[in-house]
Amino acid sequence: MTYRIARGGQTFGPYTDAEIRQYLITGNIGMADLVQAEGSGEWVPVLQIFPLTQVPPMPAAAPYIPGPKVLYPDPPDFPWWGALLLGMVTGFLFFVVWDIVQASWLKRIDKGSRAFLLYIGLAVLYVFKLPGMWSTMDYNMFGGPLVHSHGGTLSGLGFVLAIVARFVFRRELLEHFNGREGIPLQLNGFLTLIFGGLYFQYQFNKINEVKRATNRSVPAV
């Protein structure tokens, strides 16, 4: 069994049972810290799992545990199912807007992020496609004239750009959470390809739960 320790918005570990008890003796871990057992999503006080009476003396010194790192603003905290419903109601327009919202959050904390510009380009293509989409809907539903446009070409470009934007954003999210924030994150490539922003939002919801549980939450202003 291994454990992770949370203190001041930062997580450490995993550590074995023996290491935890050793760190308690040397003072590297305090009773005010939180502990999470392997396979459990719950953070509890260290005292709850390692009572003082059960901590045997151990002579070996423990390594220094560094202080908390910089806390980053939480990613957009909107229910993924709500995004799905709004996307369907608005004819996918909400998906285009929400992709930009997600990417703009990462752009604010990582100036080198490229996903934001890619999603802006995707939104521009969507705007250019709107006349053709309206013409097709008017023709099919109301019998209006069918206006020929470059919708097929724009759709092809949009499809390619959407794939590129999703996977660039995926790579940048993995680098940010696994690197800067130290929050383990895995993003399935197939689900990224199929669901894009909805899949990212589902992961954001889970990440925000972890940040709140470990006192690392920094709500966006």
What does this structure look like?
With 221 residues, this protein is an alpha+beta fold. It folds into two domains: 2-54, Dna Ligase, domain 1 (2-Layer Sandwich), CATH 3.30.1490; 80-213, no CATH class. The protein contains eight helices and four strands; from the N terminus they run E-E-H-E-E-H-H-H-H-H-H-H.
Structure described in brief:
By secondary structure, the protein is of the alpha+beta class. It has helices spanning 17-26, 46-49, 80-89, 93-109, 115-142, 151-181, 189-195, 197-213; strands at 2-7, 10-16, 34-37, 44-45. The chain folds into 2 domains: 2-54, GYF domain (Dna Ligase, domain 1); 80-213, no CATH class.
How many domain modules? Answer: 2
- Determine Rg (CA atoms, Å): 24 Å
Fraction of residues in helix: 55-70%
What is the spatial order of strands in the main beta sheet? 2-1-3-4
Please, how many helices?
8
Largest sheet: 4 strands, antiparallel
Distance between the termini: 39 Å
Can you tell me the residue ranges where pLDDT is under 50 for at least 5 consecutive residues?
58-62
Amount of beta strand: 5-15%
Mean pLDDT: 81
Series of H and E elements: EEHEEHHHHHHH
Query: Which class do the helix and strand fractions yield?
Result: alpha+beta
Keywords:
alpha+beta, Dna Ligase, domain 1, four-stranded antiparallel β-sheet, elongated
Topology:
Layout: E1 2-7, E2 10-16, H1 17-26, E3 34-37, E4 44-45, H2 46-49, H3 80-89, H4 93-109, H5 115-142, H6 151-181, H7 189-195, H8 197-213
Antiparallel strand pairs: 1-2, 1-3, 3-4
Helix pairs in contact: 3-4, 3-8, 4-5, 5-6
